[in-house]
Specification:
The complex is a heterodimer of chains A (203) and B (159). Chain A is mostly helical. Helix content of chain A is 79%, strand content 0%. Chain A contains 7 helices and no strands. The relative contact order of chain A is 0.09. Residues 86-94 of chain B have low confidence and may be disordered. The chains are: A mainly alpha (203), B mainly alpha (159).
Chain lengths: 203, 159
């Protein structure tokens, strides 16, 4: 029997290799989705939920805290939160976790590669800004709780600003490095696999 | 199209999923995971199927795209184990089941792109159709089919 005929005869009821579990569809009982794009989309949703919670806290802070400087600082933080939310929402809308059968295999591999890379880059970019912004916000809130007078006094101390800048200079590269490593652990192998497949198709 | 239509179509074409899963995975758990992911993707994407191509072609494209974009763990083929198993197959027991098993094992030794190309070729798709499914030129498909067939023949000869 030639290979073509043999291949066509395979996958019949007599074939011992597994049987499709139609009960899965009939009972709508699917296991947790394994697609990396599903996972990224889920992570974006969780991230956006946290941003909303933080934004609500900032708004509460703006209403509750008296000093104008605190209100302005919280407004900057809220602005950064809104920016992060919009970026996340944009990416969330761009990601279609379903496999597009109308796309060729190469197009689908490239689409997955681009979206995962985009997600990693967004995370790395956030890592650069997150620490300074959080530190700044935390310091302002901490000082506000001590009262306006004390806050004004502390704000004029150069040592405070040196300490803040020092921490930022030290922590930003550390945080950026940690985020990169985390992204590598999570997606590096999969991205390499996709890249190799794209190259293999072109060879 | 309804859920009932989908199930009818899927039952008629389930051998596509069987065969692809069997050449891309060896471990029973991996096979089950892949099969489930393909069914889930097909189920969710079915609303997008407008009948512009045959359902079998649509399912083939979806299955290949799913397997190659989702698979995280490469198939580890232990040649020694395989050869020992295969050498135990006597000519008298060389029936359809064994022949299918041999072909699955041989195809698992090809690389991922070769598996895709050769499975489509054996399924009866011409180079132009394969080119459209894979996303490369028909000339390149011809080269890949030739190489994959030669490699497959060599593997089968060794067996």
């Amino acid at each position: 029997m030639d290979l073509e005929q043999q291949w066509k005869n395979m996958g019949t009821a007599e074939d011992p290799h597994g049987i499709i579990e139609f009960s899965l569809i009939e009972n709508k009982h699917f296991k947790k989705k394994a697609s990396p794009l599903y996972k990224i989309k889920k992570a974006l949703e969780i991230g956006m939920s946290w941003i909303i919670i933080l934004l609500l806290a900032y708004v509460a802070g703006i209403i509750l805290f008296e000093p104008l400087f605190t209100k302005l600082s919280l407004l900057i933080l809220a602005g950064y939160g809104v920016y992060c939310f919009i970026q996340s929402l944009k990416l969330h809308k761009q990601i279609d976790p379903l496999i597009i059968a109308g796309n060729s295999l190469k197009t689908e591999l490239e689409r997955h590669y681009q979206r995962i890379t985009q997600w990693c880059k967004t995370q790395e970019r956030n890592a650069i800004f997150l620490y300074p912004v959080s530190l700044f916000g935390g310091a302002i809130l901490g000082m506000s709780s001590e009262g306006v007078e004390k806050m004004n006094r502390v704000m004029h101390k150069p040592s405070l600003w040196i300490a803040l800048i020092g921490i930022i200079v030290l922590m930003v590269p550390v945080l950026y490095y940690i985020t990169r490593q985390m992204m590598k652990v999570a997606y590096y192998n999969h991205l390499q696999h996709l890249k190799q497949l794209i190259s293999a198709l072109e060879e | 199209m309804s859920e009932k239509d989908f199930l009818v179509h899927l039952r008629e074409n389930q051998r596509i999923i069987f065969k692809l899963v069997n050449i891309y995975a060896r471990d029973p758990d991996d096979k089950k995971d892949l099969q489930q992911e393909i069914i889930l993707q097909a189920w969710k994407s079915y609303a997008r199927f407008k009948g512009e191509s045959k359902f079998s072609t649509w399912l083939y494209r979806l299955s290949l795209n799913t397997i190659l974009t989702m698979r995280r763990r490469p198939v580890v083929v232990e040649y020694r184990d395989d050869l020992e198993t295969l050498s135990g197959v006597s000519s008298s027991s060389y029936e359809a089941k064994d022949a299918a098993e041999l072909l699955y094992k041989a195809m698992r030794r090809l690389d991922d792109v070769e598996k895709a190309v050769i499975s489509l070729h054996l399924e009866g798709y011409d180079n132009k159709e394969i080119a459209d499914i894979i996303g490369i030129t028909a000339n390149l498909v011809a080269v890949k089919v030739y190489r994959a067939k030669r490699k497959l023949a060599e593997i089968l000869k060794k067996i």
